[in-house]
């Protein structure tokens, strides 16, 4: 039977051996993550930054500039030279679309084509000084707003929060043992879906 309430979900977690306090935390965290995900998908802060900074480009165009600039420090990717294929890979889009977007940025003076220092036959994409200023300003804007928010936290709260957030951020990295541990519960959930499908079939 489908779950209709948090109470039923909490009961399932308790039956699986998860204590009530942890079960309640799971439900609370999931609700917060859904809200966070919706706001992140709308990218409210990034849009606000571009408007307040009077940049004159939209978020999709800013993403192209960020992709040309290079990976973040913790992305595990070397800097290297940026080509159309690099932009396509970083944005997870088709190379032809990446080419059109880069061309738009070149036409607007945010990027320029250059000859590779490693291979003169290869064309690379680099940001203009104006574009670097935009990328840096948007990043600084975000840090200012976040910094202002966190400045109201007690130092002890920050000291506890950051390590815990890092720890929580890796919760999906090793889920196989948990899947094996709860194989019976997962099989029961799959069976409940199959039963609903059978019940909905016309006689």
Automatic annotation (TrEMBL):
Matches recorded under SUPFAM superfamilies: Winged helix' DNA-binding domain
HTH marR-type domain boundaries: 22-170
Highest taxon of the lineage: Bacteria
A Pfam cross-reference name: MarR_2
Protein name (Swiss-Prot/TrEMBL): MarR family winged helix-turn-helix transcriptional regulator
